[in-house]
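ok so heres the complex, two chains, lmk if somethin looks off
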Amino acid sequence: MERVYKLYNIELEEAIGLILNSIEAIEDVEVIDLQDALGRILAEDFYAPVDNPPFDRSPLDGFALRSVDTANASEDKPVKFKVIDRVYAGSPSSKSLGSFEAIRIMTGGKIPAGADCVIRLEDCEVVGDGVIIKNKLEAFQNYCFQGEDIKRGNLLLEKGTKLNAIHLGVLGSMGQARVKAFRKPRVGILVTGDEIIDYTEPLLDGKIYDTNGILLASRLRELGFEVIKIDGQGDCPKAVAQAIKENMDALDLLITTGGVSVGDKDILHEVIDLIGGKRLFWRVRLKPGTPAMYTIFKDKPILSLSGNPFAALATFELLCRPLLAKLSKDTTIKTKRVKAIMLDDFNKKSKNRRFIRCIYKDGRVGLPKGGHSSGMLLSMKDCNALIDIEAGNMGLKKNDIVDVVIL
Amino acid sequence: MERVYKLYNIELEEAIGLILNSIEAIEDVEVIDLQDALGRILAEDFYAPVDNPPFDRSPLDGFALRSVDTANASEDKPVKFKVIDRVYAGSPSSKSLGSFEAIRIMTGGKIPAGADCVIRLEDCEVVGDGVIIKNKLEAFQNYCFQGEDIKRGNLLLEKGTKLNAIHLGVLGSMGQARVKAFRKPRVGILVTGDEIIDYTEPLLDGKIYDTNGILLASRLRELGFEVIKIDGQGDCPKAVAQAIKENMDALDLLITTGGVSVGDKDILHEVIDLIGGKRLFWRVRLKPGTPAMYTIFKDKPILSLSGNPFAALATFELLCRPLLAKLSKDTTIKTKRVKAIMLDDFNKKSKNRRFIRCIYKDGRVGLPKGGHSSGMLLSMKDCNALIDIEAGNMGLKKNDIVDVVIL
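and the predicted structre for the whole thing:
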């Protein structure tokens, strides 16, 4: 059977462009409790609903009074005020100050009605129920105005902000118990292959344990996404097609692994026929993970990756992160690239564009101990980046400057 | 009442030393499901329980056979083999190969008994139920040995590893459904102050919304910790003492905010008397957050921070992260320091050592728009680091090299 792929054997950048053109960001908005909002994407511009501080307050310990009553106060002509009340932070006075009256006030206390300044405790002399002042005070001396830090109505956080602890602190200080956030993408993972056994089961002869399911699910969780594991359907195209049909409505993206190459157990091609998916591309000009395939089904993306664990991981980083960044509006998870200096030689020729695992630190990259084969994951455990080697490269030397994709 | 502090008005580094000397890492071990293990600290050296691959397998599509039977094969003298079975990945053959027999085998298929090599499909001629070979093959040509990637018994992950997606993939590939991890610290947060209103409540006259509770809880969650919010007890020393007594058994660390300065509403001193806590230090020579206090109660740490949000955050980063790193054995959350070049002037003199908020990027630091006052949190929203300014500094100039603490 002849299958039509819009594009076959394309460049990585073209594949990313096709992916980004085929999807829209999720616009659904959820109202969530502030304590659950860490890492979520704010769905509205947030304007301050109140002033902060919410009232005029004292910046220090002392006495609140009327500056006009101190106009003639001096060392030689001290003025006595009657102390009529005491104000703590959180406990304002119900009294209004009259002429030559003062109210004892603590840091953070609300300035009482009638007062327009505060004199520092150390600058006064307390005598019985009174206080003696020997300085002239200006209006609003030692006086914090309502809204001095944050003015009601000011734009505090922009739509699209990824909420961190500071943002939640600011929202809390504004009395926001809930916040509007974009719904997170729900990502399904479906691992194909008759040889795959879930790690909770005993290993049978000729089978291997599933690596990709837990690897990609954990990577998605690291990036902040919800993961729905769709139980493996082995190598039966009808069962896999049925599982996709049943689950796709609940998903924003499905990632499959395995079955995308050219052997007669490479069932994903038949699966896409069975569900009637629209193929956008198959095969990307890079190693590992060449057979990556991309399909739209029910207006949603299905990204099908190679079954080799390192290949699945590398193509997840290269193809899926830009996709997830657009879906979720979380720009922080876009693939990041830097230039770096090689600390080691890599003596292999690269007929095709190739991505190899490496350890990036402070502008330098080293290669891990252990193998680079696409089925080997263990040597990846110390790695945090991929070197992007162009097609036709004859090998990399120490001190070469290379392009690096940060994971 | 005279209170005894072992140390008063000490340097930051001395405070950190006292904290680290006063606590032990949590040694409790939990057995957890692999899918819940992301970010946890591995509590044992993990040795491979099985080989990977778990059996001898074919690296390519072709025919498995006995190399000895090809000894005389050539273009001129082709040798015919009888094809007796077919092996897919995951479906091994139950047959044993005899002389001049071959078994069709796919990539990842288990090498059948009797075979010691694989010939590539493209190098054969398939005729009816047979296959014609024209090449001499070596023993173990195109042959992947059991344990080639991972040998059973090899040390794969060291005790103390913080488990990421790659580690979980490796553990999954070894058939580990569960993993031993150190218990995470449980951190309590107790916000004091009569002026504090929870952000879920209406704002009353003279009160302000709680910022520190949600700020520190979210910061702890960002760092991967479980947080237990202990409901605010206002400014009543007995109620706060009671809340600490009731909750301390369930906690590994308590963080309090507010009430640690010298005013008559600075109740934490009395609280520590009431619970009979052992004071280790009070007041650290830095701004903001000078009045930080540290107590041991029921052999567990209580870190008491200033109530000003920026002060609470800065001293959390400086004092609490080293504490949490030791408790949890998670070395990745230790405070990180770098040198950086100033992009702006900072014209204030610093009588005491001072930490100011800044934006760090690629070896450079800029200052945010907005205020640096310790009560102001908003201008922190674009910041990711603190500049450490030494006591007696007369102001920083553009292009100065400064010490920076990365958040």
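quick notes: Residues 23 and 152 of chain A are 38 Å apart (CA to CA). thats all i got rn
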